[in-house]
Automatic annotation (TrEMBL), chains A, B:
UniProt: heme c 1 binding residues: 62, 65-66
SUPFAM superfamilies: Cytochrome c
GO terms, molecular function: cytochrome-c peroxidase activity; electron transfer activity; heme binding; metal ion binding
Protein name, per record: Methylamine utilization protein MauG
Matches recorded under InterPro entries: Cyt_c-like_dom (IPR009056), Cyt_c-like_dom_sf (IPR036909), Cytochrome_c_Peroxidase/MauG (IPR051395), Di-haem_cyt_c_peroxidsae (IPR004852), MauG/Cytc_peroxidase (IPR026259)
Length: 333, 333
């Protein structure tokens, strides 16, 4: 296809050997062998995902910080957990997270299933003491007994099944048919001239060495950020304070390495970077060019790239609101 | 119809002159002359209702406390507002609130429009400093400019239009086709024998003197609670501490008067009473009989009435999740 040629040839200019796949976003996400996606799991997962009773206070659901009515996040620097506590990293979008190779900013979860288990018992997020407590709470709710039975069989409420259901639901959160997707499928009118210019500039600069593939989050898994030390910007944004991958591995060589985040719907997910310190997309583009590639972009180049990134905003599938099952004895104050 | 005769004749036994209308819940709510319901207003209202950006912290939406995925409330004694503050009254259900004669527990709002304006600027609920601030925030969001334009015309974002849209949405939140509704429409198999027994007992006791009409919240608007002083229960539940209507009017004769709440979906909206101090429906029934009617019910009678109240759980219409429009410069931390 023309676009593939164009991207590859433009890439060739940068000397990178990365393969840039000008691929449209798949409309289905692959599921692991031990958790095939079923309608019953998805329905249950959507309920659990939106149920604030999975938090100690009964006020915070997965959707509170990864809001599917918005761009899949909460548009905050730090998310607000139980008791108004504020987390240290900006919530990544749940949309298209099925295409991430690892989950969390520091990649500490290998799968959506593993990720789903984390925030529920994180003391500053959903604050449950243990998954045993979550399971005990769910078991008291007749509607959940039935929904788990449909999805996993009788008496199946557990951490394992709950996180599998949430992951199965998350695998349906895909936003296809962006202007870019239409463009790479052959509709040359789908992107504006400015967006095409921005795409070519992004490739020429080398952005797509790290942000490639259908979700613009590969081919690698982790990358260092910032690559280039810059005292001026560091003083403003504290990017290096959080050590990222090294906080998980304890290895010095992993310091300031992060999961490469998807660029899909990036126009909707301000603020930017792991600490959410950068409020606008034009500023984020400018900083990425400077700190990762050592390039100073003109305002026109930045505007072109932002226009291209706008072309990565997809179509959000219509979702039904789940009905959350009643618990006749209330759980909270 | 048989049921009407039955209810009226049973009522005659109690000597009450109230008209008990054994009416099914209407499937449409009447709208005020200055706010006819339109699809565009409902769509906008649903967005505003679910948007946490209508709160100072960006974490609390109307739906946080009046959760339409649940029974239209939050199943708490006191709701949790911005900064984890806890309100003094239990959130009433939004489902079928269109059929309330007045809004809020103390009836201080005459309409859904007036009600919608309140929590947004209440410092312990959604905490916005003023509606001017809300309007300024909404005006920055292009998607809202468009949605207001569709609903109300160009440059129409205001407190008046926002609250009208929310009210228009709320008028669609109706739960018809409960077992009771089917029963009064002629399907005698829709309620169990126990439910019919409970219904007749409720009428005989006089419950329906205050809880009658299709939403079981009339014929009057306000009633005193508790009617009968009882030191034992008062010590446990503090019912009289909050003066209700008198807190609005300042009149001694209004002390402990409350809007008669709907009994529709009451099985889903634990805990009970204005302060949410009673956690289960059987206890609430027992206390109502004792404190309002001076009657001591047997466990069997209570179980029958609870079974009848279960028959008032309606069908929740399928709702689409709204898409909340993005704001590219984030508003919060």
């Amino acid at each position: 296809m023309f676009k593939i040629r164009l991207l590859v040839s433009a890439l060739a200019l940068t000397g990178s050997m990365s393969v840039v796949a000008a691929e449209a976003l798949p409309t289905k996400a692959p599921a692991p062998a031990d958790n095939p996606t079923t309608a019953e799991k998805v329905a249950l997962g959507q309920m659990l995902y939106h149920d604030p009773r999975l938090s100690s206070s009964g006020t915070v659901s997965c959707a509170s910080c990864h809001n599917t009515m918005l761009g899949g996040d909460d548009n905050r620097g730090g998310s607000v957990g139980v008791g108004g506590q504020i987390g240290g990293r900006s919530a990544p979008t749940v949309w298209n997270s099925a295409f991430n190779k690892v989950q969390f900013w520091d990649g500490r979860a290998a799968s959506l299933e593993e990720q789903a288990a984390g925030p529920v018992t994180n003391p500053i997020e959903m604050g449950m003491k243990s998954w045993d407590d979550v399971v005990a709470r769910l078991k008291k709710i007749e509607g959940y007994q039935k929904a788990f039975e449909k999805a996993f069989g009788k008496d199946s409420i557990s951490k394992d099944t709950a996180t599998k259901a949430i992951a199965a639901y998350e695998r349906t959160l895909i936003t296809p048919n962006s202007a870019y997707d239409k463009y790479v499928k052959g509709d040359k009118s789908a992107m504006t001239e400015q967006q095409v210019r921005g795409m070519n500039k992004a490739v020429e600069l080398g952005c797509t060495s790290c942000h490639s593939g259908p979700a613009f989050n590969g081919p690698g898994t982790f990358q260092k950020f910032p690559v280039i030390d810059n005292g001026y910007f560091e003083a403003q944004y504290d990017f290096k304070k959080d050590k990222g991958l090294a906080e998980v591995t304890g290895k010095e060589e992993d310091e300031n390495f992060w999961k490469v985040p998807t660029l899909r719907n990036v126009a909707l997910t301000a603020p930017y970077f792991h600490n959410g310190k950068v409020k606008t997309l034009d500023k984020a583009v400018k900083l990425m060019a400077k700190l990762q590639l050592g390039k100073d972009l003109s305002d026109a180049e930045i505007a072109d790239i932002v226009a291209f990134l706008d072309a990565l905003t997809g179509e959000f599938p219509e979702q039904k609101m789940p009905r959350l099952p009643a618990y006749s004895g209330n759980t909270f104050n």
